[in-house]
Design a protein that fits this description.
The complex is a heterodimer of chains A (371) and B (238). By secondary structure, chain A is an alpha+beta fold. Helices cover 51% and strands 17% of the residues of chain A. Chain A folds into two domains: 166 residues, no CATH class; 170 residues, no CATH class.
Chain lengths: 371, 238
């Protein structure tokens, strides 16, 4: 015989309709918090992409940076001389080493004096593990050519075949590729030799700043011997100062909003279920099981949360699409669905705190106090 | 039929215990309304709470049923007692205790959904009885009204219909006229009496108001937790 959890839809739905003002209010609060969390997540994702999208394309098992004596490694200050590169190439277990140069500078289209901040990458045309790699697809063949990311091409107003000026030297745009960024500047890729000269012209050493290493090696030992540190790509992102500070503060805001969301929803349902305690006692006295009443309460909270979060998510997608034209904003599963799931789980956790009023409701109180 | 056999109920009071029900024996037969009266604090509502399985007595039995289908409610677990209330006991509270979000019809329909796992057949059976009972208590035209749209007497009539919609063997009624004036109180008592006789229900009714004693089939008095005298002469105290 088919059985159903009937009381959930029966009482919960009718209470939602009966007290629609209160539920609309809390639903609106949930929607607003979802909008805030979703918008911050999209913005965080967009800022992160503008910081690290090119770094995430670097090949190898680990990325090697200079380890300063008294500070943390940094992409901005790392410099690896020939001896260090050779030491890594000759270390036990190392299969391949790709020296890469990164430096931030300015570039301008040849017919303008309006410079744009760019990130200059010095990359060889081919390196192990770079097949179908959008960053290496930009690597030019000749020293007087550059590969330009979409962002840089848009900022400079150039296309393939145009000429741009970098640190006083003219380059021909050989290819316009994917939208890749480094520390909020769009990427332009030069040959290693051309990059080394450009680095020197902006006050650098002309030496590689990061090594992409493929190996089955004792990373710490080699790092200690060469004054370097080898990190996975994700771990190396902490060596990007702008990324670390931005993501840290935005992440803290998102975490706090999650906490506020759980508190608000929990507080609402605590007060609401306390007001319902008398009804719960009556239903128990009439024969309702505690389990069915708990499902009823959680079902009610779920309906409010799903509706509120749904409206909030729709607003995030709508407003995010508009904002994406002016702000670094990314709409993706990780910036929309992930926060939404966390919101729903935390909201339900908050509502679950209120269940004590349900489980502890004494059916005897329905009989009144005169006995 | 419901029968309380030598029921004793005590409550803690500091290091001692207060006796609320003292070796009470009481029988409510099918198709009869048995009144339980007595002064405030005498223990009459405690007897009702024991009969409703809301309080477990220190000793004694609470037999519910007929013939071979007899259950001692005093021996049931909490879960079993809840199921017994849901299926075999109807309760009408002193206050109507209706759910404010539900209409009169829904107050009755909810009884089919209390278990959280009620079968579709049982739900359909109860749903089919809802209109019949609303008609029996004279509320057909008010079936779509919510609690705040009903008068005190109408609320109590809905509560009575709710107590009977699942066709319980036992109906327990607590001071049903305490919030009503004389005229409405009399109508409610007549309604309970009529439905009890029509449906062959064993009804225990707690009251301190004897103005409507002619609607009772039996009447017992409770004093200091003891069932003392059968006022109407037909009550069974053993």
């Amino acid at each position: 015989m088919r059985e159903r959890k009937g009381i959930i839809v029966f009482v919960a739905w009718r209470e939602l309709r009966f007290a629609r003002g209160r539920f609309l209010l809390i639903g609106a609060v949930v929607a607003l918090i979802t909008l805030l969390v979703g918008f911050l997540s999209g913005l965080t994702g967009g800022l992160a992409a503008q910081n690290i999208s090119s770094v995430l394309q670097l090949p190898g098992d680990r990325l090697v940076l200079q380890q300063p004596e008294s500070s943390d490694p940094s992409y901005a200050t790392s410099s690896l001389d020939e001896n260090t590169v050779t030491a890594w190439e000759q270390a036990d277990g190392v299969e391949s080493v790709t020296p890469i140069g990164i430096v931030q500078s300015r570039a301008s289209a040849s017919d303008t004096d309006d410079p744009t901040g760019v990130a200059l990458y010095g990359l060889p045309q081919h390196a192990p593990g770079t097949q179908s790699n959008p960053l290496f697809d930009l690597a030019p063949v000749r020293d007087d050519e550059v590969g330009v990311s979409t962002g840089a091409a848009d900022d400079l107003g150039v296309e393939t075949g145009d000429t741009i000026s970098i640190t006083g030297t003219d380059f021909t745009v050989s290819v316009v590729g994917d939208d890749l960024w480094y520390s909020h500047t769009p990427v332009i890729v030069l040959t290693p030799e051309a990059w080394s000269e450009a680095s020197k012209r902006v006050g650098g050493t002309g030496e590689a700043t990061v090594l992409a290493v493929t190996a089955d090696a004792d990373w710490e030992a080699i790092g200690a011997a060469t004054g370097t540190v080898a990190e996975t790509t994700l771990a190396s992102l902490t060596a990007l100062e702008a990324f670390r500070s931005e993501i840290g503060s935005l992440g803290l805001m998102i975490t706090m909003l999650f906490g506020i969301s759980a508190l608000v929803v929990g507080a609402f349902f605590t007060v609401w279920t306390m007001q319902r305690a008398g009804d719960m006692a009556v239903l128990k006295a009439l024969g309702a099981t505690t389990g069915s009443l708990v499902r009823d309460s959680l079902g009610q909270a779920s309906i409010v949360l799903i509706a509120g979060i749904g409206v909030g998510l729709a607003a995030v997608i709508g407003l995010g699409t508009l904002a994406g034209q002016a702000l670094p904003f990314i709409i993706s599963p990780i910036t929309t669905l992930a926060p939404v799931v966390v919101m729903a789980v935390l909201g339900l956790a908050g509502a679950a705190f209120a269940l004590r009023s349900v489980t502890k409701a004494d059916p005897l109180t329905a009989l009144g106090s005169n006995r | 039929m419901i029968q309380l056999q030598n029921v004793t109920l005590t409550f803690p009071d500091g290091e001692n215990r207060i006796t609320a029900v003292d070796n009470a024996t009481l029988r409510g037969n099918n198709g009869t309304v048995t009144g339980i009266t007595g002064p405030s604090g005498s223990g009459k509502s405690s007897i009702l709470a024991v009969a409703a399985t809301l309080l477990r007595p220190d000793s004694g039995g609470v037999l519910i049923g007929n013939g071979s289908d007899m259950t001692d409610a005093a021996q049931l677990s909490k879960h079993e007692a809840t199921q017994l209330r849901r299926e075999r006991i109807g309760i009408v509270f002193q206050q109507s205790n209706l759910l404010p979000a539900l209409t009169a019809r829904e107050q009755l329909q909810v009884m089919a959904r209390l278990g959280g796992g009620t079968s579709r057949n049982k739900r359909a059976k109860i749903d089919a009885r809802v209109d019949e009972l609303l008609d029996a208590v004279g509320l057909t035209e008010h079936a779509g009204k919510r609690t705040h749209q009903l008068s005190g007497g109408q609320r109590q009539r809905v509560a009575i219909a709710r107590g009977l919609v699942h066709e319980p063997e036992v109906l327990l009624v607590d001071e049903p006229t305490s919030a009503l004036d004389q005229e409405r109180g009399a109508k409610i008592m007549e309604l309970i009496s009529r439905l009890t006789h029509e449906r062959d229900t064993a009804t225990l009714l707690v009251t301190h108001d004897l103005a409507h004693r002619d609607t009772l089939d039996d009447l017992v008095t409770v004093l200091d937790g003891r069932i003392t005298t059968p006022v109407a002469g037909r009550a069974l105290t053993r």
